[in-house]
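Input chain follows. Return structure tokens only.
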Amino acid sequence: QLKRFKEDPKLIVEFLNGLYEVLDGIVKCFPEKLYKVETINASYLVMSGLPVRQEHSHQNAASIANFALFVLSRVNEIEIEGYPDVRVQIRIGIHSGKLAAGVIGKLNPRYCLFGDTVNFTARLEGTGKPFTIHTSIDTVNLLREHNGLYKIVE
């Protein structure tokens, strides 16, 4: 059965749509703090501190960390119709840093992000273990400003 899922583009699209609906719902829980940038293939990109810049980087890091923790708490609720034994093996990458952002294009304008921060975050997610939040030392240092609120495992 799993082979059919992998080979049927319609099932993949239906599954990703269901997954992104769940993630969109979680982003809505943080309306002033998170911004869904886009989805790329099977990756879902969320930022904090954009499009309106926020002054306190440690608050942005906390917003993203809270989002990531909430996602991990809900991931087991996601089911693929007809495949009750298949579970999402989500990987999360978090990095804090500078980037360039702006609207690109006229025909289909997009709010795009550029820079090493975006690339490094993608590498953290892409090489991570399922069900784990992989966080850069830059973000860890910002989260430590919250006086032990976040458990950091090295």
